[in-house]
Amino acid sequence: MLSPAAYVGLAVAGWLSYQWYWFRQNLKKVSAIPTIGSDGFIGSYLSAWKYFVSGHKMIEEGYRKYPGGAFKVATFETPSRWLIIVVGPKLSDDIRKASDDYLASNEPTIDALQMDYTFGTDRPHTAAHHMQMFSRPMTRNIAARFPDVQDEVVNSFKELLPASEDWTSYTVMETILPIVTRTSNCFFVGLPLCRNREYCLTLEQFAVRLMMSAYAITLSPSFFRPIVAALTTNVHTTQKKLRSFLGPIIQDRLRMYEDSGEDNEEKPNDMITWLLDLASEDLRTTEDVVARLLISNFAAIHTTTISLSDVLFHLAAYQEYIEPLRSEIDSVISTYGWSKESMVRLHKLDSFMKEVGRMRGVNNVTSQRKALRDFTFSNGVVVPKGFTVGIASSAQHYDSTIYEEPELFNPNRFLPERLQEKHDGRNLATSTENDNDPSSQVKHQMVSLDTNYILFGVGRHACPGRFFAVNELKGMAAYILLNYDLKLPNDEKVPPPGQHFGSARSPNPSAKILFRKRRT
Ligand code: HEM
C-alpha cells in the first residue's frame, strides 16, 4: 500500500513526463526554425518569462539575426508555447495574402486573451456580422457623425482636463482613458449614455480586468485555469450592468423597427442601429447587441488611449513642432470647419501621428495568425498546423533598410511631399496628384495599409476601426494643440519610455504631462 505522499509523487512524475513528451513532440515540428532564447524543457520556460517581461528585446535580436527569415520564441501566449515571428516586408506580405483557411486571425486573440474564460464560450463569434458593421456602416458614417463626436471631444476635455492658467500635472493614460471612452461612445451609442460615468467606467474596468485575468489564466497550469478564471473574470457582472444601461434603448429601437419598419429614416445613426440592421432576426436581442458593443469597446478604447497618450508625450517633448501644427490646424479649420474632410487635410498632424505610431505602437508582434493547416512562406519556412505566427512589427519599424535614420523622431517623414522621394527603391508618391480630392490624399496617410508600416496590421484582417480611430485621434490632438500648452515634467526633451508585456506595448501608465491654458 502506497502512502498519500507517494501517490502525489507519482501523479507529479506522471504529469511532468507527459509535459516533457508533449514539449518534445511540439518542438520537433518547429525545430527547423531558429530559437531566440532557450529551446530546452526547463530553459524554454525561463525564456517564456523573459519574453513576458522584455519580449521586445528578444524580437529585436531575432530581427537582426535572421533578415528575411523567421525565428521562434517560447511564450505563454500561445497554446503550443511557441510564437513564430517573421522578419521583413516580404514575409509580412505572405501573411497579408494568406487565406483564412490557412492562417486564422481570430484564434490567436482567443488564445492570448483566454476568451473562452474571459468572454465566455457563448460570445459572438469574431467573424460574425459585427465585423461587417465596422467596415461598412460604421466607417461610412464617420463623416456624418464627426461633428457630434468633436462636440463630445470638446465637452470631455473641458470637464476632465480643464485648462487652467497655471501648469497642472496630469497622469496621462488615466486622464485620457475616460475621454476616449466617452467620445468613442458618443459615436457608438450617442448622448446621453456616453456621458454616464458608471456606464463608461464599466467598459474601462472590463478591459483592464480582462487583461489581468488573461495573464493570470495564461500563467496558470491548465487544470487550475477554471478556478483562476472564476476568481478573476468579471464578464457576467459587466454584461449585466451593460444590459441595465443599454436594454431599454435596444428595446425602444426594436419597437421602432416593429412599428415603422426597417427603413425608417428616424432611426438614430449609431452602432446599435448598425448592428440591428445587419443582424438576423434571432440575433436582434439585448444580450447579443450588448455582447457585440462590449467587444467593440474592448477593441477601441485602450488602443486609442495608448495612441493618443503617445502622441501627447511626443508633442510635449518636441515643442518645436507645436507651432507648425497649430498653424496648419488654424488654416484648415478656418476653411473647412470641424469635419472629417478637414481631418484628411491635416497632413502635418497625420505625419506626426504616423511617426509616433511607427516608433511606439500597441504591439511588438502584430497580425498574429494561427495555422489551421501547414502554411509555407515564400522563403520556404513552414508554420505547422496549430502554431501561431506574427510579424515583428516594432523591430521592422526601426529597420534602416526601410526607414532612413529610424532612431530619429522625424514627424515630417510621412508628409506627402517627402514621400515623392524615392524610398527603398520604390516611389511611394502617388497621393498628391489631386489636392482637392480628399480620397486621393488618404493614400499614404496613417490609415493606409502598407507591409512596411504595420500599426494597424495587414490584409483583410487589418484593423477595421482605424478610419474612426484616426479621425477621432486627429480631432482630439487638434483640440489639445489649439487650447493647451503642454510640457514634460522638468522640461524633459525625450518622451518617457513605454512598457512591454510579451507581444504588447503601452506607454508608462504613471507618466505625466503638465498642461495649462494656451498662452501663445
Ligand atoms: C489607434 C487605435 C487602434 C489601433 C492601433 C488598432 C490596432 C489594431 C491591430 C494591430 C489589429 C490587428 C490587425 C491584424 O491582425 O492584422 C486590430 C484589429 C482589430 N481592430 Fe483595431 N486598432 C485601433 C482602434 C480600433 C477601433 C477604434 C476599433 C473599433 C471601433 C477597432 C476594431 C478592431 C477589430 C474589430 C479588429 C479585428 C479585425 C479582424 O480580426 O478582422 N480597432 N486593430
Automatic annotation (TrEMBL):
UniProt cross-references to Gene3D superfamilies, sorted A to Z: Cytochrome P450 (1.10.630.10)
Biological source species: Ephemerocybe angulata
Family: Belongs to the cytochrome P450 family.
InterPro entries in alphabetical order: Cyt_P450 (IPR001128), Cyt_P450_CS (IPR017972), Cyt_P450_E_grp-IV (IPR002403), Cyt_P450_sf (IPR036396)
List of residues binding heme: C463
Residue stretches in coiled coil: none
Gene Ontology MF terms: heme binding; iron ion binding; monooxygenase activity; oxidoreductase activity, acting on paired donors, with incorporation or reduction of molecular oxygen
Keyword tRNA-binding tagged: no
Cofactor: heme
CDD domains per UniProt: CYP503A1-like
Keywords, alphabetical: Heme, Iron, Metal-binding, Monooxygenase, Oxidoreductase
Alphabetical list of SUPFAM superfamilies matching this protein: Cytochrome P450
Residue ranges, annotated region (Disordered): 493-520
The name this protein goes by in its record: Cytochrome P450
Domain of life where this protein originates: Eukaryota
